[in-house]
Write a structure and sequence with these properties.
This protein is α+β, with helices and mostly antiparallel strands and about 220 residues long. It is about 40% helix and about 25% strand. The strands form three sheets. The chain has a four-stranded antiparallel beta sheet. Strands 2-7-4-5 form a four-stranded antiparallel beta sheet. The longest helix has 27 residues.
């Protein structure tokens, strides 16, 4: 899977989410609220019901680096399923979000009583883990433009961001892209400019409109 190949969305269905609700606790998070911090004790696993959860940490020169973004019916914090675990990143609600948290006992009950749903949840975690490992590979070896394309593709999986086959990248999204790509704003602006020049993107005021069908075939 190259940097500009699309991440395949998760295995969880809305029916799975209904089953999971029996075993977990729902919580609502206002935009900007920290769900947990890196290094704090971890227990169980989170599933996003709605919204956008950003996983990140401070990198070089204390700049934020985003390792992953979780959307509806995706997971985060699965390190909490390990004994004596601690969270590996910070988790923050980028927008108004709702999550479902299964602690370790709830997860064990799910495996025992609803094995089909537990398998779907495990498949979701494995799919996301593979995509995160690919991100690490891209960060080490891919060009800035390829990493920008991959970041835009990831944001394109947010159900609230899509309209008529396009992705609107607002100024707040632009900052998130910078943190996902891990490059200077200048190099990212140049990469976006090349996407505009090739017809993959358009500049609309302070935002960019990305044509997702063309993004998948971008030569980045």
């Amino acid at each position: 899977m190259s940097a500009n190949e699309q991440f395949q969305p998760g295995q969880l269905t809305r029916d799975d989410l209904e089953i999971l609700t029996v075993y977990g606790a729902r919580a609502n998070w206002p935009s900007g609220f920290a769900v947990y911090e890196r290094g704090t004790p971890a227990n169980g696993i989170f599933v996003v019901v709605s919204g956008r959860i950003v996983l990140g940490s401070s990198g070089r020169n204390k700049r934020d680096f985003v390792s992953w973004v979780s959307f509806e019916r995706e997971t985060f914090g699965c390190e909490g399923l390990s004994p004596d675990a601690h969270y590996a990143t910070n988790a923050c609600a980028a927008v108004q979000s709702e999550t479902l948290h299964l602690n370790f006992d709830g997860y064990r009950a799910l495996v025992r009583e609803q094995p089909a749903c537990a398998i779907a949840l495990s498949s979701q975690m494995v799919t996301e883990r593979a995509a995160i490992l690919q991100r690490l590979h891209d960060f080490a070896s891919a060009s800035v433009e390829a990493r920008v394309v991959a970041a835009l593709d990831r944001l394109g999986h947010d159900p609230s961001s899509k309209a008529n086959g396009t992705l609107v990248v607002s100024p707040a999204d632009y900052r998130l892209v910078c943190e996902m790509v891990g490059a200077t704003r200048e190099s990212i602006s140049l990469a976006l400019g090349r996407l505009v020049g090739s017809g993959v993107a358009e500049r609309k005021g302070t935002s960019y409109v990305i044509h997702r069908s063309q993004l998948a075939s971008s030569p980045a």
